[in-house]
Design brief:
single chain, 223 residues, mainly alpha, 10 helices, elongated
Length: 223
């Protein structure tokens, strides 16, 4: 009976939906049976849907405010919409690949037995949270209007900021992703809780840093 139970447990596959309800359990399953291609395809499709909604939510006023000449706005808007939609497919793939490579370097320094496949699978499943965030936020923006780059689930959206700025980094799904990443590094990569949380928080802060730099370069408000 015990052997049968063990076999059943090992055969259980991680679930993308389970990442919202029981991420710890999914990470244990990923450690035993990492899956990549099907979940990566699903996540890429979800990102593509979200980014397409973002593209459809864009209008000429956004570019006019950025100083684009009115006679060039239609061309810039059209090119941007196509670029944003295509980016949606590539974003999760590139993001998961780079994130997994960095995690692998860190985990090997920490003498973790985790493999690249396990980390890639872990980050693919984590990416579904970001995909849900994009679809929710861009869907709302498509319905009610406003700058699609400002998530309604961020502090920038809550405070009705006109530009993304620094507060755009403090967003529900981004923080959720950080928390789940820490759990994944502990469960799947078998790192200590302290190290797992440190890595997740550092990644989050680096993301804020890039946003801050982008805001400075674009002349966006810091608040």
């Amino acid at each position: 009976m015990e052997n049968q139970t063990e076999i059943i447990t090992k055969e259980q596959k991680p679930s993308l939906l389970g990442m919202f309800t029981s991420p710890g359990e999914q990470f244990e399953r990923i450690k035993q049976s990492p899956k990549i291609w099907v979940p990566l395809l699903i996540v890429s499709i979800l990102y593509a849907i979200g980014m397409t909604l973002m593209a459809l939510s864009m209008d000429a006023s956004i570019f006019i405010e950025q100083g684009i000449p009115e006679d060039q706005v239609d061309l810039v808007l059209g090119v941007t919409k196509v670029t944003v939609a295509i980016t949606g497919i590539l974003t999760p793939i590139i993001g998961v690949l780079i994130g997994s490579a960095i995690h692998l370097i860190i985990t090997k320094i920490a003498s973790s037995p985790v493999t690249f496949k396990q980390l890639f699978s872990m980050n693919t499943y984590i990416a579904v949270i970001g995909a849900a965030g994009i679809i929710l936020n861009t869907g709302i923006r498509y319905a009610i209007g406003g700058n699609p780059e400002i998530y309604v689930t961020s502090l920038a959206g809550l405070l009705n900021q006109e530009k993304v700025g620094f507060l755009g980094s403090f967003e529900v799904f981004a923080i959720w992703t950080m928390i789940v990443t820490a759990i994944g590094l502990h469960k799947t990569a078998q790192l200590s809780k302290g190290l797992a949380w440190t890595i997740a928080i550092v990644f989050f802060l680096i993301g804020i840093g890039f946003t801050l730099i982008g805001s400075l370069l674009q002349g966006a408000p810091m608040q």
